[in-house]
Amino acid sequence: MTKRFGDESTTDQVLEGVNLSGKRILVTGASAGLGVETARTLAAHGATVVGAARDLDKAKQATEIVRKDAKNGGSIELVALDLASLKSVRACADALVKAGKPFDVVICNAGVMACPKGKTSDGFETQFGTNHLGHFVLVNRIVSLMKKGSRLVNLSSAGHRFSDVDLNDPNFEHTPYTEFGAYGRSKTANILFAVEFDRRHKNEGVRATAVHPGGIQTELGRHMTPELIEQMMKSISEANQAAGLPAFKWKTIPQGAATTVWSGFVASADDVGGKYCEDCHVAQLVENPAARGGVRAYALDPEHAKALWTKSEEMAGERF
Fold it and tell me: I want to staple 212 with a disulfide (CB 3.0 to 4.6 A). Which of 137, 152, 249, 278 is the partner?
């Protein structure tokens, strides 16, 4: 790689000069924020984008900009996907497999954040069920469409540092529920899923990575009360100050989606495979609880990743 990118790089800067004509990419959560921007920049560079969304009417309106900016044969089509329903996930996956068109990159972008305690239609805790299990089943059911050279990009978060997964109580049946604790578990799961998926498929030339987009104001935070936002900002500011880092500032949406496209289309597969990326680079292991950047060791632990895979199969009632 000759170009270097950082926390202020945008999607268009990262993909400058990159021709994605002939590439087919699945992007979940293509109805708002990072999902729409990711789809837009990919189609603008010639890619065929399949955008998955729960609300297709909303997604159709939101992706007008994708159709408008598409160049060199770039396009977008939409498919229905409710990650909080494994029935919907399986129906979406089955339709994609039946169509038989392979994917070069699968981007698991959709998610929920810091919502009140609730359950998916299958009875799983909302954030773990939506952010992790829905994507886990979807990706494993369409893996036959991922040819040699393809990649999986899971959107995780610096929020993974809030908490490790709890394989003994994934649904908070015995543990006191907190919005950020549950979010942290689901984002750690996103990383561990990428670690184990990469281990299982790298000999076939299929790789996986997880990314932190950065702090962005999108619909992801729609469940957060002003009090929760204030609590989060205070925590970040105190951590930055303790670590001697500059004050926190929000990223723009094009800056937030930059690491996704960098890890999926620009970085070397060997560099990012089985890793966690942030600000358009592979993150370092950091155990200092005051540090905001970096990745915690438990999120990259290979045995932990295998155990999560087994637990996820058990919860979904399906072996992969």
Answer: 278
